[in-house]
Amino acid sequence: MRAAVGLMLSHGGGVVEPSMSRPDYEQSALHHSCLLVLLRGVGPSRARILQRAFEKVRRVSHIRVNDSSGNPRTIWIRFVHDHPVEHNDWGDFQTHRRLLGLVTIGKFENQTELNELCRQHESLKVRYGSTLYESRAIFFGPDETPLETIGEVLASPPAGGRRLQDEFTTPSNFKAQAFFYREQDSCADLESRIGDFASALFWVLESRRLERSREKADKLSLLQAPFEKRDFVGLDMESRNNRKRCVGRVMKNLADLSLQAGLVEDALSLYHNANETLRSVGDSLWVGATEEGLCAASAMLLYPQMREIETLHRNSSLQEAGTSPLKNTPEKWRASDATKKISASEATTNNVDGTQQSQQHQQQRVTSNSSSCSSVSSLVTTATNSSASDTPTTSSSSTSTISAAPIPGHQRNGELPGNILKAEEITNYYRKAIINYSKYRHAATIETEAALKASRICIEQNRPLDVAMFLQNILYINLSMSEAERVKRFEIITELYQQIGYQRKAAFFQRLAALKHVQQGSQAPDWNQSYRLMLGSFTGYLLCLDPLEVLENAAGWPALQIDLVQSLITAARRLGHSALATRHMTFLLQTQWDNMSPTEQSEMAVQLQNLSAQCEGSPVPLVLENGTVIPPANLTDLPYCLDLQVKDLPAHLRPQRIKVAKADSGPFLFTPIHFNSVDRRDKKKDKNKIAFQWVQNDLSEVTVRLRNPLPFELAVTDMRLLSNGVVFESLPQTIVLQPHVPTYVALHGTPIEPGQLDLQGYSTHTLGVKSNCRLKHMRGRSFPPNYLVDVIPALPRISVKTSLPQTATFSNMNSADIVVTSASLTLYNGESSSCTITITNESTTLPLEHLEVNINSNVEQELQKKIFRVDEEALKAKLPVPPQSSIEIIVDVYAEADFVCPQPPASVHSSAAAGDYGAASLTHYSNVSTSGHASLPSRVSSPQHRRHEPQNSSFRSTFSGGQSSLAALSLQPGGGRGAGPSSLGSQYSQHIEAQVRLKYSGGDALTAGYCRQCAVSFNLELLPSAQITSWDVLPAEVPSQFYLVLDISNLTAQEMSLNYTDTKNILIEAEESCRVPIPVDRCSLEQVVAARAAEVAENLERELCFRTQLLSFNDALSKLCSIHIAERVKINWLLTGTDIQGIASLRGIVLSQSMVDLTAVSPLEWAISLQETPVQPHSEIVCTVGQSSLLSIQLANTSLQPLRNLVLSIKFYQDYLNGMENYNLETRVAISGPNRIAIPLLKKQEQKQHTCSVIFFTPGRFKASIECTSTPQKQSEQPASLLSRSCPVETENAGQSVMFSSSYDEQQAHVWKFIPPIEVTVVEQ
């Protein structure tokens, strides 16, 4: 009933009752056993100088002393920097709240400052004098001499030094013990002195404990909490309940003193007894205190590892790989005490021993069959069940490893006390204590601290739900406190939530604390603390300071994250850190761009632009004053990169490998077996490896396609390439991007040294922020992480000019992109000219050491060599070319053309070809003959008779295998094919496109095997000049020559002067033609023999190579004769009135078999005599009418092969010298004997002779045609063809089958005539 009255009175209104000013948020259950000592700095603030002393004092966390009975005890010390005086009033309720010791530390320079330090020390003693046992003062003087203590006499003072207290003295009213040290003293004995100070506190405490234990029950006074004094006014203190109340409270107070004195087992028994006594009288407040004491004493035995020193934590902003809160969610289940906590030997670095160890307490093990907690300790419990006590008890699994971490300096053997609370009982007892505290309004602070202690115990027990329950209960405690205390409460709750892995709850309270710092109405808002707390809450919102990790994980709640970052930006702005505000706004845009609407994106971009106007953003880390590093944030997607392409150098500047002729290393062996084929074929090529190379000191290009996602123009300035590897000089680029329009941007740079260049992206400066946009950070695009480009050594650069005018358009040939200039030239067929190419080495340091000239064109290689020619020896003599110097290259150009009109053999069947020989044709031919050559044989004027003689046919033969390739080189587009006589006046021009390609190199690149290639586009126009439309071969006056009769047309628009021999010229009007005879030496027998040997050798090679088609000797001989004529006949032409001149070549002329027989020297050697007189060329023979004349003909085979099927024939005719020849002389001449003799075989060097008689019936001039013909074994009638001035039409009969034979005469019909014909003058008798 008294308790109920006290409860009602405690909740009654009226006078303000004394209560604790603020909770001690750092207090834990183990602090119940600690002696509370105030460690305070006095005097001027010299934290850096005194920090060493503070650290040494704090190292004395406990001492070991032997009590009066010789038993060792471990006494724990707790140093605090501030302690409200009113908390001492609660010392009777809980003795660990009573301040027992005072240590001050100060620095002085003179006596005045020392007096002030002493005064402040004494004022603190007075303030806490009601509970203070001992005090010490530590003073640092100005010099570096060893420390001394007041009243201490040194046996041997240090030589050359004075004691500090000899120089300075303390005031007379200063009664505390002081330690003097020089400023730079190492304070080696300070820890031992603090240990002595703690030992002194212990003995005073021990004496008080003994006094309390010896008090008699009838003389006990009622211990009260500060607010309980009015509750017992007017009550009978001698009643039974009150007497029990007094006993119970004193017993509880004695338990507190025993716990502080190191008697944990005695304290447990006293707590249990006090709990039972106080519960019987309904003393709820003190029952809660005994329950809390039981929990504290049990925790000391179960969780001694909780006594660990604070360690320095590294900067949380410098997160290593794998430690990011976004990558690894914090564990909700902590490891057990055996694996998580550090050993006590590591935690305590300095122990002060009072006496020697005498005996060790036995260490108890508590077994458990409970599986309520999933932790490592539960496994240890199962393993240790065999060593448990005989009577098993039920306990939490977290208590099974209590022997794993003994109290430092105190080892126990044996079992734990039987009255110790088990793990789950500790939680229940704390819950009961909190319930009892909650009944008293003035105990709200005690209730809050109890909840915090319970939370820390539950953390050790791996009970996160219980922790959350106790922390949630703190929020409902009605505790009057300042805003700073509220913030502190939220921070402590945040820390505990973080320890159990409740990151989001921790972030909520942390942000709540941040808002409390700057809430509306606050007189001194602390934006610095608000910023710090909001920055620390990033983890709970699944954010981190590195935007790359945020984008990679893409976790969390975007709306909350955006709101948090915006609050952080506001705090940074209020702090005046414009750089931080800009950085966080950049972070917001980079990480939350996809989670914002277009309107929000635009608004945020404008805000960033306004912030960056105060402080420009840069891609470098920002380091805060507390050491936190803010990683750089880059606007990777602003502007948005759609594509990035590494461009090759311009084609004429691209490096190429110098091709080296490979040495013949033997035959190539092919095998279908693939060794290591999987490794070789499945090996993936590096996607980021660029196939081409860049050149040192050459401007290179990367093309980027960008899109502006904002609704307004976006200016991007100072855009550069980001590179790694070799030194690379990037050039800035500026561009203004229109909204939502893809735009190409060319970024340029120059590699300064050779090697491998790593292109990682580009940098931008937009919205006032400099950003490094790397390819590996661009999400949603298939970009490689980088591009690797090989940079080769520097190559020289050249400029090219020509002496010819440029063309309007460049070449359409392959590799036209390497053309740097052009040249155009117009020539007539057969004309020669030259082009001077000037090459200037534009390099400033590199010489031009290698220069190679190649010509490519749209004509065949053989013809190209005839048109273009470069003197390579003269070019090599000009190398090397020094920097800034020039050389000239002469390119000789000859207008090579096929001057011979193509004339297929099928044209011999054309009636048009036969009809061309009319009167006009004969008249024209006669005029040419008369004026051009007086000795031309007169039978040329009789085409009617020659029309039926096959040996006089004029056509281009295609029987020869070598002629078809020559005809293919014709440049005439129509080739004269299908054109009649009217086509002579047609204009045919040819266009040749060529490239003069220059490969050049020098310096280190030449050594590495690289060069460049550029080209000059050459446009050559060939105009028709002269053309040979028809040709024939006629016998000459001497056996060593023949006449080549040509029909030559002037296809130009000007008069042409034609020089066809050394002394003969003729003028041809424009688009007119003429016929000219040209005497040519016959092909010698030695050349024929050589051709025959070459034919035999080639046929032998063909047989060895299993080729079925063999060459005939006729092919070789025909080709030989064609070349013979082309080499000896050069027709020079000149356009009158100009200096345009050229040469018309007969290259490619095709000869029929009869022409070949006249061109080559005859294989037969003739010996003819008439009237027993040898006939000499051009000799005059006179015969008489009616007189028989003996004609003797002797043949000798001078060839290398036998001749078969020979027919010797003798014909007499009359030549009227007007083109008419009369062979009908039956009434004028008679031959006695056969005039046709067959010779089946004429062996090599064999001779045949034939003799007959000739009788002339009428006088006159007669000629004798003596010829020997050979026919093939299977004769095929060959149609005759006359000399034609036209280009006949090609028909379907494009060729004939030819019978091949090894004999000279078995291939085709041959005609060998005795030249010149025998002229006989017949006179009358």
From TrEMBL:
It is found in: Golgi apparatus. InterPro entries: Ig_TRAPPC9_Trs120_1st (IPR058565), Ig_TRAPPC9_Trs120_3rd (IPR058567), Ig_TRAPPC9_Trs120_4th (IPR058568), TPR_TRAPPC9_Trs120 (IPR058564), Trs120_TRAPPC9 (IPR013935), Trs120_TRAPPC9_N (IPR058563). The keyword RNA-binding does not apply. Residues 653-762 form the Trs120/TRAPPC9 first Ig-like domain. GO terms for cellular component: trans-Golgi network. The keyword rRNA-binding does not apply. Belongs to the NIBP family. This is Protein brunelleschi. It comes from Drosophila gunungcola (fruit fly).
